[in-house]
Amino acid sequence: MSQGLTKPVHPLLSFLVPAVVTSALWAAWLGWDQHRDVHPDGSTTGPYEAWQVIGLVLTLLVPVYWAASRRHVVGAVLGTTAGLTAAAFYDWSDDGSGLFVIGVGMVMLGGLAATTAVSAVIASAARRRGPAGA
After folding, report:
1. What's the pTM?
2. Considering 1, 18, 44, 59, which has the largest number of Cβ atoms within 10 A of its Cβ?
């Protein structure tokens, strides 16, 4: 493996890159679908489809891997969580009921738990692999 891929990353970058990439991924996967689907029986679903959320989760593995494999687990966890939380807050803040805050809190807690677990696994694998991928 190339030595260039294992260069140290500044701790601030390990937070900012996942945060910015996560917000952009939210916009790409979820930001464009803002209407609810009304079914013939009057029930509504949405605004997101399952494939959109699954796509977001799978593509979030890239920034998490980028930071965690460089042993910046805190940056991976906090950057991704901050990006998800900010994107959800921005996307849902036009809700008139004010209940969007509950959803944003759930996104924050879920993002924190999931990225902590994934980052720990990635960092552990990177530690066993060694500094140069040996």
Report:
1. 0.82
2. 18
